[in-house]
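Cross-posted from the bioinformatics board.
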Amino acid sequence: MAEVNFPALEEKILRFWQQNNIFSKTISQRRRATNFVFYEGPPTANGHPGIHHVEARCFKDIICRYKTMRGFRVIRKAGWDTHGLPVELQIEKQLGLNSKKEIEKYGIEKFNRECRKSVWLYKKDWENLTERIGFWIDMKNPYITYEPEYIETVWWLLKKIWEKGLLYKDYKVLPYCPRCGTGLSSHEVAQGYKKVKENSLYLRFNLISSDPQWQNTAILSWTTTPWTLPGNVALAVGPEIEYVKVPDSAKENYWLVIAKPNLNLLFQQGIIKPLSEEELKSYPHFKGSILAGLKYQPLFKVPELETERSYQVYPADFITSEEGTGVVHTAVMYGEEDYQLGKKAGLPTFHTVTEEGRFIEGLEGGLAGLEVKHPETEKIITSLIEERGTLFQEYLYEHDYPFCWRCKTALLYYAKPGWFIAMRQVKKNLLI
Ligand SMILES: [Zn+2]
């Protein structure tokens, strides 16, 4: 069999395409055909192209070629992404800046000018690669995200979306660095996990009920983030999970509600005393749905969080038996699942923590203004809930926790306000 030299073969075909203007002919010779318009999701030219770009572009190219073969007039428009984090990070590094605040000090306009200069650094490499991999795209008339025409188009689109009532303000819970003042992408979060040993807390949430079966009874819950406790507004239980009411070993004539599947784990951790099968059987068993709607005493007094729906037990579908007590302490603004549950239940969206990672002014218990993730602050929180009779036990817990890759600060899961487009409402039309 004859040896085939693939690179030579490819170059021969590329030359043929170029010399005969094949790409432009697929458009110019089909004036009457139906358009199929492709805008490339624009690459950033301040970095070298990599093999992953080749892969993504193969998919893009295949779809367009397929449409061409089906008789469409396929217009392929190139673009350059000149905005966003990749550009800013590169310039930050170059100028030795480490935070949003330092950029502001340096001057936003000056910083933007540096960014603008940097975005064309590897344009030539990109063009060479584009040509060599045989990716057909009109690079002579690209859209560039920093040009006023492009920006105005985006504004025009947003206005249209607003007029249709599809633009709305909401929160999104993000891994957030309170020192840098910025949310982190999942890629960035993945770079900063560290094993930490810290105090987690098992807590009593004392039930308020006139029903005799809930007198002198608390629901036991667990948290690894004591700083979220002032923001607690709900407890989540699995409606189909079996719960059991057992005696509180640390408080006479008192009872604790715990998910039955979690008991073994709690025995092993030494949180509660082992119970014999016989003994366990003698205590009341019930499904989580029975607990839904029960009210409990708030741990902290936060007037903004007091509504008719607050400080209640809600059913949820994210409860597991792998850790904790099968009851999840819910602080609406500090966890994605918490936020979703809060939205469904109509719970207040109020921050007890500032964007600087400190407790808000006016928070009771001497917590106002304190750095929330500081070990000293956690000690104060622990002693406060101990004074109030709600601390059941501290437990030293080892787990992976994310830190900011830039400044090593512990990240907080934090609800940040933002604008959203209600895509779900138009999904059906888009898929037809
Ligand atoms: Zn940071």
